[in-house]
């Protein structure tokens, strides 16, 4: 059980959530999208939101600006979150169009607001769970897609709800976060996605 709980923090890392959101969208969307277009979009997202942050982490670690990949101290989160805001903004401006794929465009706008909110809290030395923020935002997005496309997505939704519990249990088990920080992360993920529904649902 110990290994299973610890595994949750890696399998459901917040850097993976934007990619998973886009991948799930392309899997379930009833709209026709060329395979090449899907591949190009997913590759762009993986490079911008996964590979670049990983490379930057090693740079920051060498410069002694972060101590570990877990970002346990509040001050360690400032630069990575600032970078993530810039990278998500690049995706919004360069990868998706609000008229062609409004669902994904506003999903990433929601991700940007969530990231910015987490950064804002860091200024006041408040640490929210980024893991919980990522998985809760993705879960709400998938629920909204189910309603939007009128598709039965109970399997996806049930799996993601389980993932929310897995992440929360993992973070508590490793003493990475308090219950308050997990709840705060949950709402930081859900509220921006909820607000974005006005533009595409």
UniProtKB/TrEMBL annotation:
Segments passing through the bilayer: 7-28, 40-60, 81-100, 106-126, 138-162, 182-200
Domain of life of the source: Bacteria
UniProt keywords, alphabetically: Membrane, Transmembrane, Transmembrane helix
UniProt KW Iron keyword: no
Protein name, entry field: Transmembrane protein
Organism: Halomarinibacterium sedimenti
Species classification: Bacteria, Pseudomonadati, Bacteroidota, Flavobacteriia, Flavobacteriales
